[in-house]
Structures are given as C-alpha cells and as structure tokens.
Specification:
Length: about 170
C-alpha cells in the first residue's frame, strides 16, 4: 500500500500514543516518533524499542533540558509561577519547548503531518496548533479529537485492545 504521507508523532510510549502510532500505521502513514527529554525519569531505550516494535520508521529523542531550564524554568521561578498556590508549573511550561522541537524534527524528517496524544480537554493541543501555524506546510492529525479514532478506542475504556497484539 502506498504511504498517505509522513507523520511526526509526539510519542511518550504510553497507551494513548502507542494506540495512535498503531492506528496511523494501519491507515497507511509512515510515522516518525518524537520524544523530548525535559528532565523526566524515563526508560529511554524501552520507549525507543516499543515505538520501533509497533512499526515507527524512526524514534527521535531530543535532550531539551538546557533549553527548558534556561528559557522557561528560571523565569517561572523568578515570577513564582505556581498553580493554585501549590503546584509548580513544570509540565505546562515544557509544552512550548516540546512543540517547537517537534516542528523542527518534522521539518528535518520531511513530514507532512503532525500528531500527538493530547485530548481536546487538555491545554497541549493549543501549543501544537500555534506552532503548526508557523509551519503552514504541516497538517495536524490530533487523533484523540477525531471521531473515527476516538470511537474505536472508546475513550480509553477499552484502549488496551490497540496494543494487546504487540
């Protein structure tokens, strides 16, 4: 089957993005997976192996710790960026850095599409959409917002079916 195009998938190795990876492959896309290291504890090799086992053509892991800390964390600490007076904003601060790096990888790898595992209720799709506007040659495939995909996994209740055969 000829490829429908090349997708750069923001991939975590978790259930949602693993199901998205498998679905994209079933639909005829070539998929380059992208994961950002912003300081989280992760078994990087296990994530790489999982993506490649599912069928990704490539798994790119970028070390963005320095950029994340220097461009966002220092400033957030200076302005006391705390949510509801209790939580540091680490995850939400990392999203623009991750989205910007994914756009770079997509361009370098010749991808025509972007995808991620953000649900429509999360803030992350907005970051990806904004950076996508800068790179107008890329088209977004936010699969958790696409009815056909979301109904197949029944909003995670039976999503394990997507990865049972791996």
């Amino acid at each position: 089957m000829p490829s429908k195009g090349k997708v750069c998938l923001a991939y975590s190795g978790g259930l949602d993005t693993s199901c998205i990876l498998k679905w994209l492959l079933e639909q005829g896309y070539e998929v380059v997976c992208f994961l950002a290291n912003v300081g989280q504890e992760e078994d990087w090799e296990a994530v790489r192996k999982k993506a490649m086992t599912i069928g990704a053509s490539k798994m790119i892991i970028m070390d963005l710790r320095r950029e994340f800390v220097e461009s966002l964390c220092f400033r957030a600490t200076q302005c006391n960026a705390i949510y509801e007076g209790r939580y540091l904003l680490g995850t939400s601060l990392a999203r623009p850095v991750i989205a910007r790096a994914q756009m770079k990888v997509a361009a370098e790898e010749g991808c025509q599409f972007l995808s991620h595992g953000c649900t429509v209720s999360e803030c992350s799709p907005g970051y990806f959409a904004r950076y996508n506007l800068v790179h107008d040659q890329l088209h977004s495939l936010p699969l958790l917002a696409i009815f056909k995909f979301a109904t197949r996994i029944q909003f995670r209740s039976t999503a394990t079916n997507c990865t049972q055969s791996l």
